[in-house]
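ARCHIVE CARD
Drawer: 12
Card no.: 0347
Subject: one protein chain, sequence and derived structure
Cross-reference: see card 0346
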Amino acid sequence: MSVVGRALRDPFDAWKPREDSRLAEVIGHLKMCINSYRDSLVQRRRRGDINAWLGQMSGCSFTPTLNLSSIPPARPREFFFSRSRNFKSLDEINEGFKLIAEAREENSFGLLTTALYSFLVKAPLTAHDLLPLHQLRVFNENVEELRRIGTEPAHSIQLQSYQELENILCLMRALMRKWPEYEECSVEAVEAALSRFPPSKRPAFVFPISAMTAKS
């Protein structure tokens, strides 16, 4: 860990560590390792250091890691979905939209990706609990705003923002599999999200119905 801290702290002539995807991958692995240990004061301090390092990494260090082209799993990983996180009331949903609106007013790409991800990760996936389609349409309209919000270059954007955006696309695909009608109205939102990635780092995205058709 000391090597990573020194790499981000000390100057280098040609190497730009904050834009290095390999260093971002190393820090990501360190985070997974730390999270596997029993909680303690030492581990909390190390976790804080790792989160601070991730916060220093720029969007240029992003590398796609999620599968956005195969058929989405019927039961998404608990990393994304937890019953304790699901919206419990209309008031909670409205509060989520309020936070998204506030992020849009700030004209910040990073704040908006965080607000969108925080909202969608709470969307229930059971057939009888799915968010109404009109609310998902409103969510999509906010995703489409990514085209116009904070158009700074990748090196000025935090790595976390692209990671959240990739997670948003993964969550949207999971909802599309459960609710085909949602897929039909999500083309522009998906295009808006994909347009914000640097061309060389843009994930390969396939709509679920196309993935299922290709497999059959």
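Annotation on reverse: The chain has two domains: 2-57, 61-215. The CA atoms of residues 55 and 195 lie 23 Å apart.
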